[in-house]
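Key result, reporting period 2: structure in, sequence out.
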């Protein structure tokens, strides 16, 4: 199963970056590959949401329901798909203060099985997921710096 690790530094304090990240229903405003996010429930630190994302290279839309567990004290979020197109989609975001800046780290494990998909396409999918993950952190950093 592929694992992606990306990180980015935001020119904003950790509290600001973390709060923007927690407003997941607003993420389509700053994440171009996300069509929509609908929050289904918020119970304490657990947020369940329905996601619709685009994969332009495959001309495909992916849909999944995700469970996020936010840890406000540690500025972390563990997430996982609980149903939908991903066979496995799980990982963690970390938001680490560095003075007035924030280092964001993301770890993501995923599996997306399509019948007759070859190793070449699986390699391309890994690159696309990594590009998307990096783009998400860059977009979050930009949004935090602008607010």
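The corresponding designed sequence is given below.
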């Amino acid at each position: 199963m592929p694992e992606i690790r990306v990180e980015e530094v935001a020119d904003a304090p950790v509290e600001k970056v973390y709060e923007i990240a927690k407003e997941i229903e607003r993420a389509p405003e700053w994440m171009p590959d996300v069509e929509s996010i609908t929050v289904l429930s918020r119970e304490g630190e657990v947020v369940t949401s329905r996601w619709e994302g685009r994969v332009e290279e495959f001309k495909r839309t992916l849909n999944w329901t995700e469970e996020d567990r936010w840890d406000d004290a540690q500025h972390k979020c563990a997430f996982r798909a609980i149903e939908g197109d991903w066979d496995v989609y799980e990982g963690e975001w970390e938001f680490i203060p560095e003075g007035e800046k924030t280092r964001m780290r993301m770890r993501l494990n995923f599996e997306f099985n399509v019948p007759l998909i070859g190793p070449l396409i699986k390699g391309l999918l890994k690159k696309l997921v990594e590009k998307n993950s990096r783009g998400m952190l860059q977009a979050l950093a930009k949004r935090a710096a602008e607010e």
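The longest helix spans residues 119-146. The helical segments are 14-22, 119-146. This case is discussed further under Risks and Mitigation.
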